[in-house]
């Protein structure tokens, strides 16, 4: 099943294209890679897919609904874009509970399970402001996973992780693919993309220059 379909999508700021004429198709049960240097347009494209930044031309549809006309923000989507932002004076659990309470969908055990899944201790009282970059990244992944979304958009999810953390995240993503999730993984590390992805789009200067 096609879950994300992007047709000739473009985004401009003033007269400069951030991304241009993007064609991407993602299916359920697959991991799709976006590879490219910083500034290639990967992050802005992810923001447009999840409805955070409007696109100017073309079409982006998620689960059959066009972003910007049928829906503003797609349903059942988990996102990590750039460095995850948390309240520094609260613990990891309290941060995720604060976010979960906005929608009121999750109980304590579900939040605990998401935190355990990324290798953190849900009962750790340490404030997030004292977390290492790797711990913050793990918590960001827990946030993206905790509502069990059908689609995950992950921008550099391995950033700041040690070797064990990278291995753990890769194992999590493989398991999610087996469950039928759709995952878009943006990275500038080709080894992460090669190892995990079923389909790879190479971006440079805002355009897709190669598809594997």
């Amino acid at each position: 099943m096609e879950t994300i379909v992007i047709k000739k999508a473009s985004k401009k700021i003033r007269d400069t294209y951030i991304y241009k004429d993007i064609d991407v198709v993602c299916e359920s049960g697959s991991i799709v890679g976006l590879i490219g240097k910083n500034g290639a347009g990967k992050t802005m494209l992810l923001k447009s897919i999840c409805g955070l930044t409007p696109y100017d031309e073309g079409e982006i549809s998620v689960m059959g609904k066009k972003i910007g006309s049928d829906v503003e923000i797609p349903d059942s989507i988990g996102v990590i874009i750039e460095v995850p932002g948390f309240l520094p004076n609260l613990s990891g659990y309290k941060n995720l509970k604060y976010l979960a309470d906005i929608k009121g969908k999750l109980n304590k055990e579900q939040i605990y399970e998401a935190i355990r899944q990324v290798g953190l201790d849900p009962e750790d009282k340490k404030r997030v402001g004292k977390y290492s970059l790797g711990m913050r990244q793990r918590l960001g992944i827990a946030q993206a996973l905790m509502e069990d979304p059908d689609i995950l958009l992950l921008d550099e999810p391995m950033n700041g992780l040690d070797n064990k953390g990278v291995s753990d995240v890769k194992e999590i993503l493989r398991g999610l693919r087996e469950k039928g999730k759709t995952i878009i993984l943006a990275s500038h590390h080709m080894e992460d993309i090669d190892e995990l992805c079923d389909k790879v789009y190479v971006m440079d200067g805002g355009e897709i220059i190669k598809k594997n």
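Residues 84-148 form one domain. The CA atoms of residues 61 and 67 lie 6 Å apart.
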